[in-house]
Amino acid sequence: MDLAGVNLFIGENGVGKSNLYRALQLVQAAVRGSLAHEIAAEGGMASALWSGPRRPDKNFRIKLEVEVLDEDRAVTFRYRVEAGLRPPKAAAGFEFEPQVKEEEFSITTGTRPVTMMKRQGPGIMVRGEQGRMEEYPEQAMTSETAIALLSDAGRYPEIGAFRRVTEGWRFFHGFRTDRDSPLRLPCLAVTSPMLDEDGANIAAVFATMAHTRADTVDLDRAIAAAFDGATLHVPEPGEYASFGLTFPNFPQRIFQPRELSDGQIRFLGLAAALMSYRQPPLIALNEPETSLHPDMLPPLAGMIEAASRTSQIWIVTHAQQLTAEVERRTGIRAKRVIRRDSATWIEGMGLSGEIADDDDL
């Protein structure tokens, strides 16, 4: 499936909407070298493998493949990884972690792709400085990815470039809003161009925008629209960065993050994710409408539209109002996620990945 600048996914609970962007998150984990940890944290391979009907003669594996266009370098990266279960009598690896079986990484700068790395089992073949495929001197452990091993080696610039691209992806699965939420706590005053996925550096992100970039016009406008004219206050950081809100009804009072409602603090987290000093190449938001008052959805859609000018946006939502607002502002059409033959699918999508027009559905 080709992705657009804004990708909006709607559908019923349990059809696999989150699994779609989680697949991209697992690609990022493979490149980082944390694929085994990510899958183990989800309950291990038994929880992650396909649970529907399957042919007994086919390999029982997770297969992830992504194609990424880096417009700045005019190169297309393609990466594939396959992971399966540990063989019954194998001594290497632990029972619940993935066993990486195959990997392949290629680049395309002209008309034909060029394979830069290929892995079968523990053995790795990589294209060297002379342009020939050669055996890498170190074998990969069963649970580690070759692409992470090679990017750490620092001798393969194409793999390093792909890692830098995927490292910038941000997946905001949902912000905590309880009393001890990272969004409600001060953080160390360290220049922060992008929001961490748990939101723990939100105060530093706001401080970077206010005191390093010295431009919060768009942020102030979004907050005022969402909170009936409220104003964001970001004091000059000392050892720690902090922020607060002032509301028109209480002009002399700065409300601290711990005093804000769940919806207010969540909206501020989304604002930091979408309007930070430096925008990630990919921003994924899972049900961003959670806890938000309906009046906050138009300003949220406005921030999404603004962020889409520099970032690729991925949104999973149940909110019809947010869907309509994003569609109206961006001109895109939401993709409906359905369950088909026990599998997650996109309504109207063919095997080629092309999605039919409304008139064809």
Task: Itemize the secondary structure elements and their pairings.
Elements: E1 6-10, H1 17-32, H2 35-41, H3 45-48, E2 61-70, E3 75-84, E4 99-108, E5 114-120, E6 123-127, E7 133-135, H4 146-153, H5 157-167, E8 170-172, E9 187-188, H6 202-213, H7 217-226, E10 231-233, E11 240-241, E12 244-246, H8 262-274, E13 282-286, H9 297-307, E14 312-317, H10 320-330, E15 335-340, E16 343-346
Parallel strand pairs: 1-14, 1-15, 8-13, 13-14
Antiparallel strand pairs: 2-3, 3-4, 4-5, 5-6, 6-7, 9-11, 10-12, 15-16
Helix pairs in contact: 1-2, 1-5, 4-5, 7-9, 8-9, 9-10
Quick structural overview:
This protein is an alpha/beta fold and about 350 residues long. Helices cover about 30% and strands about 25% of the residues. The protein is built from 10 helices and 16 strands.
Overall, the morphology is: globular
Strand segment tally? 16
Q: Please state the CA-atom Rg, rounded to the nearest Å.
A: 22 Å
Bin the strand percentage. Answer: 15-25%
Mean pLDDT: 91
**Tally of separate helices:** 10
Helix content: 25-40%
H-E order: EHHHEEEEEEHHEEHHEEEHEHEHEE
Task: Characterize the largest beta sheet: strand count, sense, and whether it forms a barrel.
Answer: 6 strands, mixed
- What separation lies between the terminal Cα atoms? 17 Å
**Class by SSE composition:** alpha/beta
Oligomer state of the chains in this structure = single chain
Looking across the biggest beta sheet, what order are the strands in?
8-13-14-1-15-16
Residue runs with pLDDT of under 50 for 5 or more positions? none
InterPro entries: ATPase_AAA_core, P-loop_NTPase, RecF-like
Protein name: ATPase
Pfam families: AAA_21
